[in-house]
UniProtKB/TrEMBL annotation:
One of its GO terms (molecular function) is oxidoreductase activity. Keywords: Oxidoreductase, Thiamine pyrophosphate. Its cofactor is thiamine diphosphate. Pfam families: Transket_pyr, Transketolase_C. InterPro entries: THDP-binding, Transketo_C/PFOR_II, Transketolase-like_Pyr-bd, Transketolase_C. Residues 3-178 form the Transketolase-like pyrimidine-binding domain. It comes from Isobaculum melis. Gene3D superfamilies: 3.40.50.920, 3.40.50.970. This is Branched-chain alpha-keto acid dehydrogenase E1 component. It comes from the Bacteria. PANTHER family: PYRUVATE DEHYDROGENASE E1 COMPONENT BETA SUBUNIT, PYRUVATE DEHYDROGENASE E1 COMPONENT SUBUNIT BETA.
Amino acid sequence: MKLNMIDAIHLGLQEELVRDEKIYLIGEDIGRKGGAFGATKGLQEQFGADRVMDAPLAESGIVGMALGSAMAGMRPVCEIQFADFIFPAFNQIYSEVSKLRYRTNNDFEAPMVIRAPYGGGIQGGLYHSQSIESFFAHMPGLRVVIPSGPRDAKALLKTAIRSNDPVLFLEHKKAYRSLVEVVGDAEECFPIDQAIMKKQGTDCLIITYGLFVSKAVKVAEKLAEEGYSVGVLDLVSIYPLDQATILDAAKASGKVLLLSEGNKEGNVISEVAAVLAEEILFELDAPIKRLAAPDVPAVPNAKTLEDAYLHFSETLEEETRALILF
């Protein structure tokens, strides 16, 4: 069955609600309205308001209530309407959710998922376009997972829901309806802690995640017409990083280009670069290249400015070619 990403997420949630009665959904407008993007459309009618719960505009309350119920044996899936709005719940996530297992010496677990759409390219402006993953990639105890397409989204979400660790599950909103592919059956689950080689290559390796995996694959296919072999590695797990797969893939190519939509300084890919430099610097054939957004406060609203902010998406091909020829 071919689905776009938002429908794949909807189906994954529906299948998990059927599978386990301890699972429930909570978020702003997810019940009667089906969520801002339709990920939960019709689920309240199917499963009732006790399992698909509309919450007040209070992200801290949503996450705090979910944590309490997770400690009591439930398996909540929270929806933050836009990732930009997650910061009122930052203290709950950082001080409580990520530390629960540690502070209770494993007496309590937090089997909960926090879903949030992130990313630009839709003219969402300052409060509906940010890439917030780097803020949360510094929280031992919290897993941060970002799918790159419909099949991965469904299979990774199911694994996240079944995990006994808390998972922040970020979905690029521009990918919701722009990517379509065949999804797996109700029992297809992918590991949430393993990077995935989307394309093998020996001349250069692009390491990225989320929406930019599909963009990187297209660039790799175009450069293949010129005789170049470009690999694409999907990080999947932003925290913790799958360092073994990253290092093995980088060794196989010798040249690495890192790609992210977040601000360049302090980015997730900066940590990837540090791992590469620390472990295999002298096995690489060229300096590590990073492509990311400029260090400005937010994604602009005007299309011309947003395009300028996301310029690295358009220069990926030439930057990859330049690295190969270095």
